[in-house]
Batch of 2 targets.
Target 1
Amino acid sequence: MAEDSDILTRISGFVAEEQELRARHERGELSADEEQARMREVERALDQCWDLLRQRRARRDAGEDPGVARARPAGEVEGYWQ
């Protein structure tokens, strides 16, 4: 299972990708549709990463094994924020 640092590295990578997508769109390298499609994928992945990190921290705080936390389906995680 991934460690917290691995999850944070993935989060940083997705945030950097979001910034790059915006920049590429502004430079005219990506259409709005292309940018939005990939942004939705990146946002879903970010939601899953943050959820997994929160699960791990909650388990650790409760004295449980954070290693048993698992990524939940994007549809389930996205419903938390709406």
Target 2
Amino acid sequence: MDARERMKRINRYLFLVGGAALILIMMLTVADVIMRELGRPIVGTYEVVGFTAVVVIGFCIPYTTSLGSHVAVTFFTMKLSEGAQRVLSVVTRIMGIGLFIFLGYNLIWLGWDLYRSGEVSMTLLMPFYPVPFCIGLCCFFQVVTQIIDVAAILRRKP
């Protein structure tokens, strides 16, 4: 199994966590609507949905990238030669690597600051720090995924 397949497998597990979080959001929202009609809303639904939505987005990005399912604007690039398309593809991925390194690093530091300050949510008193830590970690998985993509593009024969 090559590095690309190994990374895709790891990303698939992250994707499953994101999917489970999405199911949690749906179930919690439906339960809250039903309970609200019965006069007993679920306390903290808004906070849990907010935290979990971040997990859904962050944990799904690396798998989407490994599948090539992200949005790509090909209107301009399809007019370029194959070599120019490869160069542009490598450059944009390198820019993405830089962006996700920056995001991951800063999210880890944010998580660390939130951990040290002991900041918690208002209703459920849930700590904030796990969310930026998890999303920062997902950013680093995204970096590895994009590095593997760059290597694959460079290995491809023109």
